[in-house]
Recover the amino acids of this structure.
């Protein structure tokens, strides 16, 4: 079943809405960089939290999950589920602290935390890697997802044959941008995003994110319910998988077993636990920096930033992932592995890879009108992530580059450059997307680069001895080791991540030993501004150790509670173990409450 006029009407109405939002907010967002990038630091916490949720759900996410489940089963999602470690740490350690810094970008944090001549170079490096390199790679794989979706739903060759013929001659039908048909859809979507986000700034991004979140959650649930019914519910899913793939399949396992994909990598339980920990903090935003920090900075106070991060954590890991899991598993029955062409209900479907099963099931399972709504939800997810990344990327260009080179640039010039940077980011990302293969490969590339940054990113919040030299050495060592193992060996991604992080840690320690310490005045200003926990000159070692220990217990309880709830929902949905699930839900919810509220209440008695 293809798109109908009703479906296109739904899409058109959504596009008009987002453009109007950008148009009506253009004046207030154009006052200065604080308004354009941070919404005047006056955004309600719940709106900021939902915006983070929407940004973390791009159109690539359900497609990538479908591909991962096809290759490794549910347990393969531990490629990204370990990020709950850092997102839990944001709540316990970083959310309120980021808001107290009052910085506009996480690169600006360098100037607050360090002193010395290498501070400026480190800030420029951070802004370049976060703002341009990783930003464009992330946008590129999001574009790749959009191409896979558009290939199923849009047929410009039939609708506008003359235009299509011209584009066919101008655009090569190879590379990540796909055919002219796919490229046209992508460019049109990006034009809409560029218009409303460049006009309305972060306010337009956050308001449209809220609507985009509602659409994406409703669309994902609708498709999951239809897929669940199509395969016969829980019993039909279990029996269908066993019938096609045998009783020893591992698709339904939430954790990897020795008989699953772990055995192929020769990874034991202990090493897998190490990998989970490293993967949690393998990122340039291991402290919640980047676009998450930008959202937290838009809130009114430090307590609101913490509330926003809690809301994000619960929605991101406990609510919206289950529709993706259901669709990914149902696809294994409806579109069995080992084929690239399927004929279902007199309709032929072609799959270039398993990430394309998600849009194929949309056309198969959804009626007119509903298909348009779910399609709008995917486009909304795509746009919510793109608008965030281009606004966030432009903030580095203004705050960390332009104002360093031209410190006297007026607000008017800053906004002009910001709006130009938005368009430039999209163009660069289009070029990068030409060379991206699968979405999963993009995820792995970003994680590998991020592993070089993760260790110094964390330690600088807890140990005053970490300096600019230590961070630069850690980044250099991690990138060199990661690149060596990526290009000159066939070592697995999991091992490579661990070795990259280890080399980064050694770089930090060398920099602490050999580098120039941060000036005492800078350290004191940082302490008075942020009130960080950890090992700082204003407290004894025993005080620091007690402080760290209490917060680590909070973090552990929060992570354990999340994992228990994940297991509970898994048992409830796929195993029909209702009583056991209720016990796990109670235990998980209790741990989360203790982590966020209970320990502090007990400590203050």
């Amino acid at each position: 079943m293809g798109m109908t006029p009703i479906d296109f009407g739904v899409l058109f109405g959504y596009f008009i809405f987002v453009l109007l939002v950008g148009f009506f907010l253009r004046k207030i967002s154009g006052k200065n960089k604080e308004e354009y990038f941070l919404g005047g630091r006056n955004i309600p916490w719940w709106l900021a939290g939902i915006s983070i949720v929407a940004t973390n759900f791009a159109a690539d996410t359900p497609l990538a999950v479908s591909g991962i489940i096809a290759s490794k089963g549910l347990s393969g999602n531990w490629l990204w589920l370990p990020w709950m470690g850092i997102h839990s740490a944001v709540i316990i350690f970083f959310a309120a602290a980021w808001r107290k810094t009052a910085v506009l970008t996480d690169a600006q944090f360098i100037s607050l935390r360090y002193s010395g001549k290498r501070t400026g170079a480190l800030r420029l490096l951070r802004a370049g890697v976060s703002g341009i390199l990783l930003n464009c790679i992330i946008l590129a794989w999001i574009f790749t997802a959009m191409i896979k979706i558009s290939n199923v739903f849009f047929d410009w060759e039939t609708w506008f044959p003359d235009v299509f013929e011209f584009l066919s001659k101008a655009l090569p039908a190879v590379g990540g941008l796909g055919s002219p048909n796919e490229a046209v859809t992508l460019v049109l979507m990006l034009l809409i995003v560029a218009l409303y986000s460049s006009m309305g700034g972060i306010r337009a991004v956050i308001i449209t994110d809220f609507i985009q979140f509602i659409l994406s959650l409703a669309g994902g649930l609708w498709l999951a319910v239809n897929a669940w019914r199509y395969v016969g519910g829980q019993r039909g899913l279990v029996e269908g998988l066993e019938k096609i793939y045998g009783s020893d399949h591992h698709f339904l396992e939430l954790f990897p077993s020795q008989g699953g994909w772990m055995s192929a990598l020769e990874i034991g339980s202990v090493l897998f636990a190490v990998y989970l920990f490293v993967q949690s903090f393998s990122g340039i935003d291991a402290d919640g920096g980047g676009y998450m920090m930008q959202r937290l900075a838009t809130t009114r106070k430090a307590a609101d930033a913490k509330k926003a991060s809690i809301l994000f954590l619960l929605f991101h890991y406990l609510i919206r992932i289950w529709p993706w899991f259901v669709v990914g598993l149902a696809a294994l029955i409806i579109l069995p592995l080992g084929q690239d062409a399927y004929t279902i209900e007199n309709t032929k479907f072609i799959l270039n890879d398993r990430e394309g099963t998600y849009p194929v099931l949309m056309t198969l399972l959804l009626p007119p009108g509903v298909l348009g709504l779910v399609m709008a939800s995917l486009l909304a997810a795509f746009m919510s992530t793109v608008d965030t990344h281009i606004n966030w990327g432009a903030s580095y260009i203004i705050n960390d580059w332009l104002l360093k080179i031209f410190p006297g640039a007026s607000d008017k010039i800053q906004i002009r450059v910001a709006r130009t940077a938005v368009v430039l980011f999209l163009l660069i990302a289009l070029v990068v997307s030409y060379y991206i293969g699968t979405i999963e490969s993009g995820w792995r590339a970003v994680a590998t680069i991020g592993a070089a940054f993760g260790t110094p990113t964390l330690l600088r919040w807890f140990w005053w001895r970490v300096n600019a030299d230590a961070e630069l050495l850690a980044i250099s060592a991690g990138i060199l080791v990661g690149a060596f193992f990526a290009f000159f060996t066939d070592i697995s991604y999991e091992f490579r991540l661990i070795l990259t992080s280890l080399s980064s840690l050694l770089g930090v320690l060398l920099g602490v030993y050999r580098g120039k310490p941060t000036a005492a005045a800078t350290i004191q200003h940082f302490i008075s501004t942020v009130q960080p926990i950890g090992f700082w000159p204003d407290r004894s070692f025993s005080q620091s150790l007690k402080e760290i220990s209490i917060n680590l217990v909070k973090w552990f309880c929060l992570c354990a509670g999340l994992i228990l709830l994940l297991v509970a929902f898994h048992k409830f949905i796929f195993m029909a173990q209702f009583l056991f699930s209720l016990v796990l839900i109670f235990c998980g919810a209790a741990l989360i409450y203790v982590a966020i509220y209970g320990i502090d209440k007990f400590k203050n008695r």
Summary: The longest strand covers residues 341-344. The first helix runs from residue 5 to 24. The two ends are 63 Å apart (CA to CA). The mean pLDDT is 82.
